[in-house]
Amino acid sequence: MESFGIFEEQGRIGIFCWDPEGIDQKEHCEVTTEDILRGLKNPTASLSKIVSPESLHFPKRFCNLPPQKCTNMFPHEMGYIVPLHMAKKMGVDLQKVDFVLGGSSLNVLALREIERQGSDDPTKYLVQKCPVADVILIVKSKVYETNYSDFGFQFERFVTGGRMEDKHDVRLFESLQLMKIGDFTVLFSAEADAVDDAGCPVEIKSGNPKWFGSKVMFQMISSGSKTLVMANKTGKDTLAGVSKLSQEQMINTHSASVRARWGENILGALTELKHSELVGTDGPVEMDFSQGGMLLKPCSDRHLLPTRKVVEELLT
């Protein structure tokens, strides 16, 4: 990744499938080993391929569909014990990993700011050291409702060969990759929307590109997506076509000086967290920012991991 020198790719680990069907909703601290193994009943299932835009017909109107909703609590949000377990199964030595980051964590560390919709927005970023592996997790925590009938998911189904009106596949496909950031080894775990012909993750977005900011670029870096597939819309409900941008093009929409500043912010934040005595294995702390400085605060109302016994069963 020559245009963003702070990141040194160490290699893709792979993509695995998580299936929430038949698992009871619960808090992460209540999750059992049996729950995890049930969700991983077919981890090598294939993710849908992006189709060639030339095979699609436009214009295409989005559908007014009945809601297909789910809440992003376990099992529809798998948590981070699952990617840790799968990374170990896929050959990663977790003792050599310093951090695990999700799809949005890089953007927060780079900007040193957490995007919230008003003062009552419950979004938090939590940090905890994982027992056994001693790796530090940096995780977004927010309970919200997803509606798979929304236009964004209709577009995702359409460009992967399905119909807009199809019921959405609620299985999750997670991309794992290792990177060096400075002296730190980072395991990225981020959702993959689709794959290309070479099996590389593809990012799919239906929103207006002027609102992408740095968030979509960092999502692509986190998931290892080399291509962004975007919707070209006329009005609010008509798809006029599809555009593609490469990861390098997305990176180069930001100046070298801005990228350098973001890199310094990311590396500085990781260094601060690595050496903080507040980050331990007993439970998460909340990470926040004020005037560009990091704040770590106690957090007793949320959980990132199952019990130590379950963690040991899955990681040893």
Topology:
Blueprint: E1 7-18, H1 33-39, E2 60-61, E3 69-71, H2 81-89, E4 99-101, H3 105-111, E5 124-129, E6 136-141, E7 145-147, H4 151-159, E8 172-181, E9 184-191, E10 194-195, E11 201-205, H5 215-223, E12 227-234, E13 238-246, H6 247-251, H7 256-274, E14 285-290, E15 293-298, H8 308-315
Parallel strand pairs: 4-6, 4-9, 11-12
Antiparallel strand pairs: 1-8, 2-13, 3-7, 5-6, 5-14, 8-9, 10-11, 12-13, 14-15
Written account of the structure:
This protein has 316 residues and is of the alpha+beta class. The protein is 23% helix and 28% strand. The chain is built from 8 helices and 15 strands. The chain has helices at residues 33-39, 81-89, 105-111, 151-159, 215-223, 247-251, 256-274, 308-315, and strands spanning 7-18, 60-61, 69-71, 99-101, 124-129, 136-141, 145-147, 172-181, 184-191, 194-195, 201-205, 227-234, 238-246, 285-290, 293-298. The strands form 3 sheets. An 8-stranded mixed beta sheet has the order 1-8-9-4-6-5-14-15. The protein has a 5-stranded mixed beta sheet with strand order 2-13-12-11-10, with helices on both faces. The relative contact order is 0.21.
Short note summarizing the structure:
By secondary structure, the chain is of the alpha+beta class. 23% of the residues lie in helices and 28% in strands. It starts with 6 loop residues before the first strand and ends with a helix.
